[in-house]
Design a protein that fits this description.
homodimer, about 220 residues, alpha+beta, two-stranded antiparallel sheet, about 40% helix, DNA-binding
DNA sequence: ATTAATATTTAGTCTAAGCTAAAAAATAAA
DNA sequence: TTTATTTTTTAGCTTAGACTAAATATTAAT
């Protein structure tokens, strides 16, 4: 059986692996988890014993297939719970993270299977992130960041990259939500800001914003 | 903030207090929690520091008002989750305990408020146990055990005292469920078994069984 | 009222998971 | 290719929570 802490390390490594090539550095993990490199080394050794990560000292770590599967399942649970919180318990998309962070560690196969069914086998969480299946397969974003669209291109908002509370609240305020149609009216090369249209309303967003919104063309 | 272990001790003490007069003994807690008396002593000291229990060495422990409130809220969460599992996720009443045991420790006021509302503010869990309100008030069983009914008396099944999986499965098999009308056809003084009728069907149950079913007359 | 039995507490270990500070390896700079 | 810098690891401490064995209270029995 897996401890809370072990699960959190696996999850962190899974996320880091997606944006890293080669081994995942001790420091990167430490930073993501707000812990110290020495603690990371300890844990990685432990996970390595359990064959959840590959590890050679000084060479960084990588998840084994087994480790990936475990991590994907934690993320699966996290995202299913997020859907539950938003769809059934009236949470807003900026409120769900902390609670899901706790719920993801509940151990019960039946629970998660039934939850999945109860929610109608959702494919994405409230931020547009794909929900892995039980085997750990993820139908990942073939989507594109808003910032990459050119003048006059159109698309549908399908996800966010940053899901911090402040960013999500900003989006709510602007009426930017998943599923909405969006059109790029103009791009400003100087600061990479762009003027967009959603539902007849036009307004300008900064590069920061456009860089954190996924679009399906 | 309360640790997992602290919460479990408070809960155990709350349940023990209900069936004990005077202080709760170290041994009783140890037995209920499958731990050792020495560990209990340690924890009680810690809880005493936090003013969650009253404690004088060698004299047993008792929950403070604050302690009772915390414990009742954990039980509240446990029972609400049980309702959720049975009503929404198709768990049977003998399957819910272990999962609820985990879910009861999730920390989010909003979560539990919304869950309560989502379930329609249930008053009892699937075993007929009352769900405490947020202030820790419990509308406890003014109900009576089946064993106390006399020949020809009637009532409605409203709860179970033992909620072990094996007992619940037995009840399912016999068609004994909450809400059913029951009539005592006969009592055998020799072994305290009784013949009962539920929905036109008559059968005999042992003292053991009759002693673990709550009836509203 | 002693003694015997039982319950409780203390003292000292153990493990998981964190930390700091120092040592060692890898990488970058001169 | 040395030297300097950065990263990683090791060694040793800390805390929570559990344990065992020994010591001390309390309760029961004679």
């Amino acid at each position: 059986m897996m401890t809370l802490s072990e699960e959190n390390y696996l999850k962190a490594m899974y996320h880091l692996a997606a944006v890293t090539d080669g081994g995942i550095s001790t420091n990167a993990i430490a930073e993501r988890m707000n812990t110290k490199a020495s603690s990371v080394t300890d844990m990685i050794k432990k996970l390595s014993e359990k064959e959840l990560v590959h590890y050679k000292r000084y060479k960084g770590a990588a998840l084994t297939e087994k480790g990936k599967l475990v991590a994907a399942n934690i993320i699966r649970k996290h995202r299913l719970w997020e859907v539950f919180l938003v769809e059934k318990l009236n949470f807003t998309w900026d409120e769900v993270h902390d609670v899901a962070e706790q719920l993801e560690h509940i151990k019960s196969e039946k629970l998660i299977d039934q939850l999945d069914a109860f929610l109608g086998f959702p494919k994405r969480d409230p931020h547009g992130d794909p929900i892995p299946d039980k085997e750990g397969n993820v139908s990942d974003h073939a989507d594109v960041l808003l910032i990459t669209l050119n003048k006059d291109e159109k698309g549908i908002i399908v996800g966010v990259k940053d899901s911090s509370s402040s960013f999500l609240k900003y989006l709510d305020k602007q009426g930017i939500a998943l599923g909405k149609k969006i059109k790029v009216i103009d791009k400003e090369p100087f600061d990479n800001s762009m003027k967009i249209r959603i539902k007849k309303e036009e307004f300008t967003i900064s590069q920061q914003i456009a860089n954190n919104i996924y679009i399906k063309k």
